[in-house]
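Fold sample X.
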Amino acid sequence: MRVAVVALLGFVWTCTSTEDEPSDDGSAQLHRYIDEQLFDDLSTFVAARTYRGVDLSEAQVVANLQKLQAELLRQTEQFNETQKVHKLTPFEWKKTINGQEYWLFGVRVGSGPRRVALSSHLDTVSPGNQEGWEPFKLVKEQRTYLGKEQEFYVGRGAIDDKGPALIALNVLKAVARQYDGDSRLDRLTLEVIFDTSEETDMSMHHYLEDKPEENPDLGVIFDAMWCIRAEKGLERPVFTIQRRGSAPEPGPGARVWIESLDTPKGPANQIPDSATAVIRSDSPEALQRFAQQVEALYQGHGFDDPAYRRAPLTVDTSGLADNRLVLKTSVIGAQHGSAPDENRREGTNPLVSLANFLSAMVGSHLERNEISELSRFLTWSWGTQVLGEHHPDLLLRHDEVFKEGKGTTYAVTRFYTQPAGAPGTAARVELDIRYALGHHSVAWDGKTEGLVGGKASPSRFQETFAELLRRFPAEPGYTVAFQTTNFFPPDVRLPESTAFRSVSRAFEQVLGEACPARAIGGGTDAKGNTNLIAAGALFTENMGPPINYHGFNEGAPVEDLRKSADILYRLLTDEVTGTAKSSSTARPLFTPMRVAPDFH
């Protein structure tokens, strides 16, 4: 494999210690890297399986991340062979906290007190399982995006976040090559940071807490879209229903019931690939009759919205001889847990479709049991809606930051029958909630940046869900319970702040317009540190097709990577030349957080 610095080795030396203004050769070299080498490098990175929580052990994930680290070190060493003065210096940080090892690494150049960082991550979400999707083989495709046909690199991690990670590294290389031997590079430290667990435990937050002297004065979390001024809070409730002590009394005639309803094992922040229900009966004839009509029943079912797009349903009758009918629905569209509104608008959640349908069949075609009752609770509470429209006084919230239609969202992402480690539990369901200011216990004052109310301030969901369950008309003998955990409050930045203006200035210099000030649901490594701004690599909030963030056929628009590279290059060169206005020397407002698996 050619290495990432091939294009940089032919660089024409123009920058000297006389501090003359540099030419645009660094930018040209960066574009050459994207045109000639990025695909090959990204192919190697995509091939490394760095997802957690499904079929890989932690040791396997770490070993694959170590291979990527070794490749980055090799590229760094080769790059340094042609550097005269300012060489890239690798660094690494590891620490075990409460039995969990946190780890990140990176490279830096310069030795000055002002620190400017670009941060990305090398872990990914799980690949999913869809016919024709080869997640670890990078391919080139033409896709329609932002009104025109564009080239995409398609593979797991292409946009989240291995593609941006390679862009960040090569931006740093271009700046280091451009200013090699220039004394201005001694006035600051530029660095690229690679988190190894952003999708799960977020090592970055622990690193910044452990190493306050290494906190950036300005940092770009290169793992979202341009530019983020607010991130919603994150709540993770789990609703359960206990096994009944005895089965319900059988009614007259044959019985048909839901034996299980399950999604594939996966993170709560990912809308599931599919949902599968197993239907049983005490009468082969009754099960056969239901099998013959279930597809028509599903297609004719009236959901809570006539315009609702139901998930594709497959009916597997191959097990009827063994008294087994299998119903399976499949996902369409965006799968990021922070974007259920986009999924509903342009795709569909397979669990929502199947649970709503099955709960409606109880009494006419199916017997009631714990699975159907928990499905009925989901249908009563949310139906197919994702903003809390069924119970607006409890669940619907939006505000001046998270506008109407972009307020609190509810993604129903996991359903497990007889979950492991819970012998008394018949079923459990998990939600990913990204919440607006109105669902937090502390009001935002309109001027203070950072986590609203501080890291320890809770949401209002404990009392919200208690009231929701109090109102739920549960059937006699069935009890739905819940536990909910708040992982962080909403995080708000002021667009007029020094950090945001620094990033926006570079954006405007490259594209000729101000950077959007977006308020999003996703949780990034910027959360909790007011000197960090999440920005790039995307120029849209759309997380569904053709990008498919966290989904099948994940794709990185190459033009977005190219424009992002230009902006980051401008940001760092402005820092070197002193064009950027100095940030405050005060330490950032930093509130380290308790984090949890799959909170991105």
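Fold sample Y, listed below.
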Amino acid sequence: MDGSLQMIRVPGALSQRTQRFKFARLWVELSGILEILDTSPRPEGGRGRPAVHPPYDARGMLICLMELGLSRAPLTYAAMQEALFFTYSDAEMEMLGMGTLRQHPNYELFASGLTFQHDADDKTKVTVKYASPRARRVWASENERLRRAFERALEPINDNVMCRAEDDDINGNSRRYKNSVIEAERRRQGVLPQTAIRDKAMNRLILGSVYALNAQAYPDLDPTDVHSGILADHVHDYAIDETDYVTAQSATTSVKPDKFHARAELAAPSPKSRLYIWSEKIGLTILCTVSRPNRPRVPTLTVAGALGKPKPANPASVKTILEFLKSSGFRTKPRGRAHQFLVGDMAYPDSRGYAELMSKMRFSQVMKYPTRRRRIHPLRTSEAAILAEKQMKSLKAFPVAAHLANGCVVCPGVSKAALEGLSPGVPTPAEGTERTLKATDLGMPQYRPAELQQHAEDSAWIEPFEMNSHGRAQVGPLLGSGRPRNDAPDAPVVHRQTFKCPAVDEKVRCPHVPESMDRHELPRVPSPPPADDLPPTCQQTYTTLVFSRREFKQLQPLRAGTWEHSDMYESARARNEWFNSVLKSPSGAGLHPRRIEATKNAFLTIAIAITVGTANHHVMTAWTNEVLANDGVTPREPHEKKQASRRRQLATAKQKKAAA
């Protein structure tokens, strides 16, 4: 698109229940959650006795829970029960498909025997006063009937297991599930298919909220074609992060020794468990859309998520999200040498299997290294790795073919000492320095002229010697030429990628490529290898290099320490953390302790997915208002102003140095 969004419409205001119902109905329809629940296999059970009271409808209960989530009300069975019997009008109950629910024989008792008192500051605090003990018993019985009806509707995604709990520990902490017992029971009871369906249902709900927002913004477009609507400028760059949701353990899930019971198995003890016995955490991993610093902005929407144990960079959650992104058709794979970036915090590159998964899914990771991480590694060729395997030698015994420096592969004509002498990273803003600023630079980071100029010189010097990749990184068996013997052992699995000589690529001059020496405007290789001991990269145009697992984790298309890398990483991480703040803020989606009832995994999954969709609605509303305030033109990333300010500061530093 050309940046003009004159046809866009602001999403409906969540302060009006009519607008919340309208969005919730659209959300349920576009998510396909009812189709998943209807077509998925259910456990066999008895028919039971005929229904006596008016039935609950699965679609109506989902819309009711969504309406509560959009209004930041508690996502509990008690809140649903109050809304269905007292809050909603008769017309709204008909819309939910439960118009006969208030023909309950005890409805008059409910109307006259119950009084609700809501806390003005905290919506999660509701006090119910009963006129008689019978009113309390009947209301509790109806709550249990609602619970059973909703759990029956969510049976295809209920992957809770019935297993034993361990005794109290010596510190007096409440009893917790043993992970080994849970996993054994999951395999024995055969609930693994339900887990896959639960993950799919959660992601369909999250993606359905994006489709619903697109339908509201562009009514004339196909709701599922978001890349022609609200995400028209998106180039499939994403940021991934995990946040911990602290949930409250319900009083109805007390643990007794040697008794079987069901509870929220996704939760794990939090650091405050010793102070508050109810405090537990659930790891919520989300995937957000982000934009590049030199492109128009896109709304930071979550398109997929996964629940799991609260641990940094949960590899199972990352795999679940990326596999859904692939199967849903939401993402278009890159073509040619194009990159689609996936940005995560420093915990993700160190996660086992993360780099291999990025390669398999054809994502290019952008990462930030820890301060003390070794950043320069010698690389060898795949032929050397084959010989090392046959001769049972160490790969270090073979000549160095190139260097891996700050995530990029550099020509062997650049010595390791020269690489170590370069600037380790981008300059840090100077604090407390006095200088005259232009009006255009007010509020922008200011850098010391010497550091800024040195970084620019180092970046300009090393850039031509970076070897361009030919094809994408691959993980597979290391095979030599010819057909292996039938009794040959399995080939070792290696990480490899093919790179092109920079002299052949017309980026530098090298004496080992005679035709390049006539290009006097190009920089010369500073330390060309001797002619009698040339590495393989100097003898051929394309060379396949092998990486150890540690080296492969550091491989990325944007060299760390450049402004391009820093802007992409910082921009994506800032957008991701901002979405987390909207998700947990009381004025946003309001995902905070005690808001969601800690029951079975199915209810928790649906409730958290609804909360994420609510955060998407708040983000889209804020972004649309910003677009309309900008005369219908998509705003640009703030990093463009920072780039322009750095260029002006660098030009000023060069002028002062030349004048001196």
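Sample Y note: The first strand starts at residue 114 and ends at 118.
Also: The CA atoms of residues 95 and 367 lie 49 Å apart.
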